Amino acid sequence: MRKYFYRHNLDYKKKIVPKIDTASNSKPIGTESLPDKNGLVRIKVSKSSWQYKQRYIYEQYYGKIPKGHVIMFLDGDNTNFDISNLACVENKNKLYIQSRGLISHNKKMTETGLMISELYYKTKSVKK
Predict the structure, then answer these.
(1) pTM of the complete model
(2) Per residue in 53-84, pLDDT tens?
(3) N or C: which end of the chain has fewer CB within 10 A?
(4) CB 74 within 8 A of CB 107
């Protein structure tokens, strides 16, 4: 083999391996992951990035999510990705309703808890 490579002016130390665009274990775009420890599913949105499915679905309907906001499930079911079940709320409002126990499996009760948290922060800012 060395003589063949030498005669044809080739480097015999280099292995000729065809280039492959993707790894054999890479997932196609649109693939959903298994739920993580919090029960949240991720979806592959580009060649090297994954995003939470609820964020991806919300952004498809309403556009980019503002900084400091999170997407929460109004009925508390992490597998219900219906757009009417997703709400974009500020981090502080979500923390408020979680700390006060205002999150419920009833969508209307959770929405009421969000309104209470918004009222709380409005009154707090007016007092200053």
Answers:
(1) 0.73
(2) 999 999 999 999 999 999 999 998 888 999 99
(3) C
(4) yes
